[in-house]
Write the structure tokens for this entry.
Amino acid sequence: MRSSRLFILFILAVLFGTLPMAHASTADIQTFVEREAKAASVPGVAYALIDGDQVHTGHFGQTKDDGGRSVSEQTAFAIGSISKSFTAFAIMQLREKGLLELDMPVSTYLPELEKAAVGAMTVRQLLSHTSGLSIVQGNSNQTDVTTDRDALKRRVVYLATITPARAPGEVWDYSNANYQLLSRVVEVLSATEFGDYVESQILKPLGMNDSRMIDWEHGPDDAAPHRPWFWTKVQFDGRGTGRGSLGQGGVMASARDMATYLNMMMNGENDILTADSKAEMMQPASSISPSYGLGWFIAPERGLVFHSGANPGFEAFASMRPDQKKGFIILANGGSGFGFGETGYLRRGAAVLALGGQDERRPGWMMKAAFLLIVALPLFCLLGAWRSWKRRASIKAKGRGIAHSRIWMPLLAAVGFAYVLLIFLPGSFGVNIQTATFFQPDLGLLLILSAIGIAIWAAIHSLVALYSRA
């Protein structure tokens, strides 16, 4: 899944620091990673730089923030939405076996969708996020972490009941729901559970021996997830995804194995997928999708192919320059915070140091100030409620001079603020408040507490006004 950022409007007001960009040495990358991982409170990081046949790996920190093992090139991290490229890869394999066509409706392969609106979407539209399903619809079930074998089948049954936000092929809109449907297609056509297919047909043939699908129990050598919690990060012991979400974010991989995967994507050879199919994945899918191929973001003018990934407590970034046979992968076991403990500069900055490109910018103090303001908001609300209650006697003395609007206006304002905090702001960036809290529990908690605080203030203020008119 991609990393969600609430209150992104604040970013427009941020003062930035700029990282000078050039093709840096491996020592420079290591120094940068260590410094920025510490600054972001990330317990551990692993990365790999691919340059033709040469692979350089690096790592820093621990698998856990307390008592973990040292991270190595074999340490497995959840790679989040980079997993979509594996799902797309599986679809392309099935096409080469003659089991599907990209421009056929998905209902051709999932007959239960024949009468559903989503059934008219083509496989290509699902792959390229031009199906009409929205980012909000794709993130609506992020917190469903059930793991039984029917979880993906149930997810498709649910998707059959929704009305897409737009008509297929009309706009580009990144949606996890696309890859939920695609993973079910893989499952049905291969007669193999989706996770088993990816392991047996992609990971094992490539020799990615330290990688697997998420199995919901962290092994002793795995990196443990750590979610942001105010100015630090706290280990997350819950499930970060369910079986229904494997196609959008279910792969765990090591830096060394991901280097193998990226190298295979760039080698121009026929192996577990033909060179033509691999090249097709890394080209614009259509005029509606000029910056996304089949499972990969692309920047043709810069020669870049890339994808970010996020699971609760994990962040990842993969980038390639296929024409130069160069690539970079960085994996972190710390989710990005807001203002404090942000990981974007660490991930993207390291990638640009490795491959060159546009300057990467560090968020400045305004982001931190915005977070501190959010921290203070519930306290301000409670202070306002206390002051209203304390002044009730003086307000009572004014008697019926208090306007009737003083009773209902605070309640109306509280409803409006609650809508903005709990629905509008999360929805503007493709998530609901449950998903926001799942990935950034500190920020989600503050939004909920602020809504509660405003409600308490409104109730006290309205009661005092009502009392004064009695």
Observations:
- DSSP finds 16 helices and 13 strands in the chain.
- The first strand starts at residue 17 and ends at 19.
